[in-house]
Amino acid sequence: TPEELALTARRYTARGDDGGGVADDDASDGVVLLRGVRADGRPIALLRIGRMGARTPERVRAALAPLDAAPPAELWVDLRGNLGGSFASAVEVARLFLNSGERIVAVRRRAGPVETFDALDAGPYADLPLRLLVDRNTASAAEVLAGALRDNGRADLLGERTYGKGLIQTVAKLADGSALEITVARYETPAGRLVDQRGFEPDVPLDSECSARVVGGGGSAAAASGGNVVAAARAEAERGLTCAQQA
């Protein structure tokens, strides 16, 4: 009920690159597509989305463009560590993978009607098989995307239970440089699930070791491949995919 949506405010001081603030730096959205990965002999593509910035939808579209000519057997979307960001961007990214009229999210405010967001047309990748990688730090706008794709039967979730932040907040800047973060609404998934403080349980739980190997490519792997980071990431991803598919 609307009464259950408490209006809360939290005051905080924005900080810099030490991770204490929320930056709207689109260069940090971390959109990367890794192609040429094979699992069980099938071509798999891996799309990493690090956060939901204002330009993330167009960056995702640009990253996926090479798949139009040669679609993979599956696309794995990596939302691990994605703490959210732009709600509107999460809606637009979801529209890329859904059919016309499918519900993305419903927003319930303290007063007024429930606002719903749906796919407007058939998305360019509405028929591409998907899987989503999530973890305990997949939150907020990233959970909007995960909930939309899962509840519409588009993707299973692999990994850990997500963070569980289903509130929509606005930030008011104060004269002393601090800010007031005000909760104004909560969202519900297409199936009517409340996410806040609950999160999503994965369809396929992965232990931390297995999860870390998917879309890997750390220093040791890069060194083993002569410094070729792309080849190292591909090799690590293939090992991780095998691990995940055996889970």
UniProtKB/TrEMBL annotation:
<dbReference type="InterPro" id="IPR004447">
    <property type="entry name" value="Peptidase_S41A"/>
</dbReference>
<dbReference type="GO" id="GO:0004175">
    <property type="term" value="F:endopeptidase activity"/>
</dbReference>
<keyword id="KW-0645">Protease</keyword>
<keyword id="KW-0720">Serine protease</keyword>
<dbReference type="Pfam" id="PF03572">
    <property type="entry name" value="Peptidase_S41"/>
</dbReference>
<dbReference type="GO" id="GO:0008236">
    <property type="term" value="F:serine-type peptidase activity"/>
</dbReference>
<feature type="domain" description="Tail specific protease">
    <location>
        <begin position="2"/>
        <end position="207"/>
    </location>
</feature>
<dbReference type="InterPro" id="IPR005151">
    <property type="entry name" value="Tail-specific_protease"/>
</dbReference>
<dbReference type="InterPro" id="IPR029045">
    <property type="entry name" value="ClpP/crotonase-like_dom_sf"/>
</dbReference>
<keyword id="KW-0378">Hydrolase</keyword>
<dbReference type="GO" id="GO:0006508">
    <property type="term" value="P:proteolysis"/>
</dbReference>
<protein>
    <recommendedName>
        <fullName>Tail specific protease domain-containing protein</fullName>
    </recommendedName>
</protein>
<dbReference type="GO" id="GO:0007165">
    <property type="term" value="P:signal transduction"/>
</dbReference>
